[in-house]
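ARCHIVE CARD
Drawer: 12
Card no.: 0347
Subject: one protein chain, sequence and derived structure
Cross-reference: see card 0346
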Amino acid sequence: MSEGTLIKLAGGLYAYPKKTVFGNAPAEDDKLVEAFLKDRRFLLVSPNAYNNLGVGTTQLYDKTVVYNRKRHGDFQLGRRRFAFRVKADFPKTLTKEFLLVDLVNNLDQLAEAGNEVLERLRVRVNSFDVRRLRRAARDYGTVRTKKFFERALKPDELAHAA
């Protein structure tokens, strides 16, 4: 590859990489996805972020989920894998509460033992912002996820009513 050349990342998508001492720097994910979608309305979610929630997830994943309103499917852009998912609604920024809801929404797609993760989440659920978690479950949860959080958050309401 000669100096100053464009690199093809996908059909119709090119990058002019920045040079570093380690070679060409990859394009930033948000800029790459914005160019691919030709839209700024999307949310990047790495399933690896679930590992920071303290509910026992430990697996590492090699793709990023992109919630958006235009494209659906798995795409390789450059050397990165993205799973584009069309969603009617998603937050503008990633929050812990949305991540918890997203974890439960996608539990069947993870390499974790689902029942164990749900049990650890049930134990820890009140250590999160319950009001924001309830709102995230209402706005972004599947029917199953909404039911899980309704049951998991109920003891908190009973404790405050006493």
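Annotation on reverse: Residues 7-161 form one domain. The chain has a mean pLDDT of 86.
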